[in-house]
Amino acid sequence: MKKIVIFAFAGLLSFMVLSTSCDKVDAPYMTIGGGGVVGDTVRKVLLEDFTGHLCVNCAAAHLAIEGLQVVYPKRIIPMVIHVGFFAKPKPAPYDYDFRTSTGDDIAAQFGATAAPLPKGMVNRIDDGGYLLDPADYATAVSLVLDSMPSKPDIFIELSSSFNSTDSTISVDAKMSVFKNMPAGKYNISVMVVESKIVEAQKNTNPNINNGKEILDYEHNDVLRGAINTTWGEEFADAALTDGQVFNKSYSKYKIGSDWKPDDLKIIAFVYYADGPNDKVVIQAEEIHLK
Amino acid sequence: MVKKILFACAISFFSFSTINAQSQVLGGGEVHGSFQADAQYYKQDSAIGANEIAEEMAVNAFLEMRYTNKGFEAGMRYELFMPQMQGYDSRWKGNGFGYRYIRYSNDRIDVTAGNFYEQFGSGMILRSYQEWNLGFDNSMDGVRVKYKMKALTIKGLVAKQRLFWDLGPGIVRGIDGELSVNDLFKSFSDSKTRLFFGGSFVSRYQIDQNPLYNLPENVASCAGRFQIYHGGFNLKMEMAKKINDPNATNNFIYKEGNAVMAELGYSQKGLGLSLQLNRSDNMDFRSSRTATGFDSHVGYIPAMTRQHAYSLAAMYPYASQANGQMGLQATIVYKLKKRSTLGGRYGTSIDVNYSVSNSIYKQAINDTTKIGQTGTLGYSSDFFKLGDEKYYYDFNIKIQRKLSKKWNVSLMYMNVYYNMLINEGHNSPDVYADIIIGDVWWKFKPYNSLHFELQALFTEQDDGNWSSAMVEYNRKGFFGAVILLYNHGNDLAGHTVVDSQLYPFLTLGYTHKATRISAGYGKQREGIVCVGGVCRAVPASNGFSLTINSSF
Amino acid sequence: MSKLKFLPLFILMMSMLSFTTDGNRPLPKVDVKTMDGRVVSTSTFENDGKPIIISFWATWCKPCIHELTTIADVYEDWQDETGVKLIAISVDNSRTSGGVRPLVNGKDWDYEVYLDENKDFQRAMGVNLVPHTFILNGKGEIVWEHTAFTEGSELEMIAILRKLANGEDVSGH
């Protein structure tokens, strides 16, 4: 009797082991580049990354974004926002202040001001909370770029110019509607980001610089300011129909004294400004200033 | 919504029956439970780095009730964080029923539906538990069945895990069996040697929607264990293994994980010895592969170090590194006999403990792959080779002696090494500290006692030297204590100069049966609070606090 | 205004104080482990019709050790006088439970000790903090409980045990 019990137990256990498939994965473990659709009029995603130069895990988040940009070339528009405790200027070499009032407003709106960093948002989608851990960026990006039609609902084309005499930026944005959209408010936000800013970054991730801080870290896609205010400008308050075109122009935006025009990019994105999808980004675009 | 109403009805029903009936009889069943509320009023204090919070006061509270009637049992816990106290995860903010279950059990079978806590073996591949005072709760929400036979106990479960006010994304399935060999064979039943075997299997399912990695959706782990007891000797061992589980804590590497824990002990009256060994490699097991911090743990790899009760001894606690650590712990407890030359009239107890934890040896799998590189097998590791980085060590000795009916003294010395990067995650100099503690109890009248405690911590790193003095007065259920904690300031090389700082704290309390109320006023330093192997960072605070605790 | 903030809590506190139990309740039925690995149901706890003390403790809890050490000094006298048995329930988890056996033997405690590694028994008894001590009468019903330990608590305990041994009513305590 007892032996039967033991055998029954052993049988049950092995049944569990065998029936619950253990997914042993073989190499290659990663997708190497070229995933998704490439083309001109494709859906692009806004990836906002809340970060700080004192945050020891934030460099790893930047690396995660770079990895995604390889998989989805030209379809990810990153915007890196320095906020909160980890972005405070400290004695040198951490004396640079990356913070912006626009960034602070965005962080306050989405709960990132006091959150442990790194955290990010993909198209400002609220999936049980706006903020994502970096390990979730890839899945969230894939849910937009792979699961939704590759043709965007609204397409943005940007052109920009820089006047070096008075250091001002002019931007023209053309929004072409590719799909009938429900009645509601639609906003466009236009921002300036800068890359290749070399300043110190704390780090303990053993996979980056052997877990040491990086004194000459290259900060990319750093939010510098909003050309048409933090929450942008409403360009429509109606139902949109396929084929409609909207144009917005902005000029005389003066850049900061230490910004390098060669490294500036203009980012634009359109989003629902009310209704059930309030704040959700529909499409994003970027262009080098020069 | 319907669920919420049902709970509300049930809880009011329970509480009314308790308060009105007093005898706590409800259809032949019984209602019992417990309650705790902690409130703190926060004042800004820039000298110690205490921040102001918008709400001024924070309250954490819970009320737990359970109804039992023969084999039937149901229970629930209402929790409130309005807002959460400083140092608790901000995702706790809110209130509601975070825990509820129904259960039926008899001598053979035990079925639970809803929330439950469970541990397989020592918990290496499955442990769900709660530490209210740390804001930790990874309870399972699902179904658990236990089946008990004379020699064999089998447990099976399917559940999701609680993650603050939600459930985590992964599904956890597990089975565990434990066999008592002595109860299996008649000829062994009276043997002096007792032998146990156990085995468990746990698998996690989580959908793969990640475009970067080709991720396993089902991650399995298994563990085997045995225990032998013979006379004063005992030997306990558990081994666990996990298949490829790329996740946020291991930088998405595809290496398999494993862990071993062994414990050898001998004891007789007046003497206890134990030696523990542990090694874990890539064994951080969670129900969500993107979880970090304290979120969604399925497996529990404990820190094999002593958990200290004195505040300065507990200042630098070791944080267990499930993804790679190798260590040992040895303990000797010895009691010098009563009425002996060395032992004195009432005997003297000596407790020596040493623990050390190291990194594991890691080797690149080939020339082109860096150690730990994402999307690869990561590294290979020689099981018996130590890594070259020390994480922690702690040597401590404690002597306790009752001098007379009225006087009781204990002394402690501790020497600790604390790797800052591993334990706190920042690049600051590692800490070497010596700690001396003296603790005296004076029972000057029946029901009246005074308790003095002096502590000093010496280090040239981190915040430098600390000292602390405490006087506590006890009279029946009443107690009052004054604690003076002092940081000597520091002008250490490479540090910003910090002025010395005093943290005075006054606490008063009253205990009546199973109810305890205490109030405190003063400054508290920022620090790490650990209970049962989990640690939480607590920011500095200045203000008034109140705690109520009761069970019924 | 801010002075009134704690008022609701004080009221709650006062009501908790009056929230005491009259009826004698039996012990919940939960599995715990002996120090030599056997699984034992708490329903098997018995002491031949004599009272039982159940004390929840942990190796990392100073007042718990203080309580058990204090009682250890007078345990023999208590046993002779009232026949009491002390059952010490360690709530140490797998991190520290390895230290229970050496400590109990090293301190020469003559108690019946069980491990409650995942706090199943602790939860069933509604224990939030250790030390928390219960006294059971000869019928195995909980007649008294107390949280925290202060010097002199042991005198209250022996007073109750004496009454139990003499068959007196202890509900006044």
> N-to-C terminal Cα separation of chain A, in Å?
84 Å
- Class by SSE composition of chain B: mainly beta
Mean pLDDT of chain A: 88
Might you state the CATH topology name of chain A?
A: Immunoglobulin-like
So, the CATH homologous superfamily of chain A?
Answer: Immunoglobulins
Secondary structure layout:
The complex is a heterotrimer of chains A (290), B (552) and C (173).
Chain A (H helix, E strand, L loop, with lengths): L1 H18 L25 E7 L6 H14 L4 E7 L18 H10 L8 E4 L11 H12 L8 E10 L4 E10 L7 E10 L2 E5 L12 E6 L2 E5 L6 E5 L7 E10 L9 E9 L8 E8 L2
Parallel strand pairs in A: 1-2
Antiparallel strand pairs in A: 1-3, 4-5, 5-11, 6-9, 6-10, 6-12, 7-8, 12-13
Chain B lengths: L1 H20 L3 E2 L2 E13 L15 E13 L2 E10 L12 E12 L3 E8 L1 E2 L7 E2 L1 E2 L4 E2 L2 E9 L3 E12 L2 E15 H4 L8 E13 L12 E13 L2 E10 L14 E12 L2 E11 L42 E13 L11 E13 L25 E17 L4 E12 L1 H5 L6 E15 L2 E12 L6 E10 L2 E10 L13 E12 L2 E10 L2 E5 L2 E5 L2 E11 L1
Antiparallel strand pairs in B: 1-2, 2-3, 2-31, 3-4, 4-5, 5-6, 6-11, 7-8, 9-10, 11-12, 12-13, 13-14, 14-15, 15-16, 16-17, 17-18, 18-19, 19-20, 20-21, 21-22, 22-23, 23-24, 24-25, 25-26, 26-27, 27-28, 28-31, 29-30
Chain C lengths: L6 H11 L7 E2 L4 E4 L4 E3 L10 E6 L4 H21 L2 E6 L9 H7 L5 E4 L4 H5 L7 E5 L4 E7 L5 H13 L8
Parallel strand pairs in C: 4-5, 5-6
Antiparallel strand pairs in C: 1-8, 2-3, 2-6, 4-7, 7-8
Helix pairs in contact in C: 2-5
